[in-house]
Specification:
The chain has about 240 residues and is α+β, with helices and mostly antiparallel strands. It folds into 2 domains: about 15-135, Roll (Pdz3 Domain); about 150-240, PDZ domain (Pdz3 Domain), CATH 2.30.42. It has 8 helices and 15 strands. The chain has helices spanning about 15-30, 45-50, 70, 90-100, 125-135, 160-165, 185-190, 210-220, and strands at about 35, 40, 60-65, 80-85, 85, 105-115, 115-125, 125, 150, 155, 175-180, 195-200, 205, 225-230, 235-240. Strands 9, 10, 11, 12, 13, 14 and 15 form a 7-stranded antiparallel beta sheet that branches. Strands 2, 3, 4, 5, 6 and 7 form a 6-stranded antiparallel beta sheet that branches. Strand 4 (about 80-85) and strand 5 (about 85) form a beta hairpin.
């Protein structure tokens, strides 16, 4: 789905949605569903704690490829709390509301960014057109030299050779997971060798020192966990790991 690789949208459609699809087929000979252009994931309790949120709700933006959301200024790490005047409780609700919205319509999207609410005006695109262009490929990660062990992970700073092996453009940054303790929390939460950590504490990380600094900052702030942005084969997601 061009709306995001971190969510599933295989839910049954309500009768009013089915009726709308039938009307579109009669009028246009095709369906025309709204497209926001973000990858999103639900806010789990540990992610909420790492972000300092009072409640685990909303849709967390993990990536913003070229599309309507990017044009409107939505950024990775934004928490979508309202869409077109209605509160967003989770990703499923956001996906439904976007799909039901009219293509080409400008809607107000409220996001929580760095603790402050911002309202952005997004002109929705057409999901069907975006799906026809969506051709993401995954790559098999190569072996890489060991540099540092943190949070149960063996991490190597990105090189052009590593980037090439991972199918990433030259000049890419981040920390590559080259090994993982299978008894660690990180492994239990789905991290694997070949994953790339690009952000920690919602700040970019390019070196092991960057990650160590974010861990120290989280501890100093009294947080139990640190929010990491993980990319795998172009598919991003946020994961909160304990720093205790």
């Amino acid at each position: 789905s061009p709306n995001g690789g971190s969510i599933g949208i295989g839910f049954s459609m309500a009768s009013n949605v089915v009726s709308r699809v039938v009307d579109q087929l009669r009028q246009f000979g095709e369906t025309r569903r709204g497209w926001l252009g973000v990858r999103i994931q639900d806010v789990t309790p540990d992610v909420a704690e790492a972000m300092g949120l009072a409640a685990a709700k909303g849709a967390l933006v993990s990536d913003v490829p070229d599309g309507p959301a990017k044009d409107a200024g939505i950024l990775p790490g934004d928490l979508i709390t309202s869409f077109d005047g209605a509160e967003v409780s989770d990703t499923r609700e956001l996906v439904r509301r976007v799909a039901e919205a009219d293509v080409g319509r400008a809607v107000r999207v409220v996001v929580l960014r760095e603790g402050k609410s911002e309202t952005l005006l997004v002109t929705l695109g057409r999901r069907e057109a975006a799906e026809a262009e969506d051709t993401g490929d995954s790559a098999t990660p190569p072996a890489a030299p060991v540099e540092k062990e943190l949070l149960g992970l063996t991490l190597s700073e990105m090189t052009d050779d590593l980037a090439s092996g991972l199918g990433l453009p030259a000049g890419s940054t981040g920390l590559v997971v080259t090994g993982i303790d299978e008894t660690s929390e990180a492994y239990g939460k789905g991290l694997r060798s070949g994953d790339v950590i690009t952000e920690a504490g919602q700040q970019a990380v390019a070196t092991v020192g960057d990650l160590e600094a974010r861990i120290s900052e989280a501890k100093d702030a009294g947080r139990k966990s640190l929010l990491l942005l993980i990319r795998r084969g172009g598919d991003p997601r946020f994961v909160a790991l304990s720093v205790e």
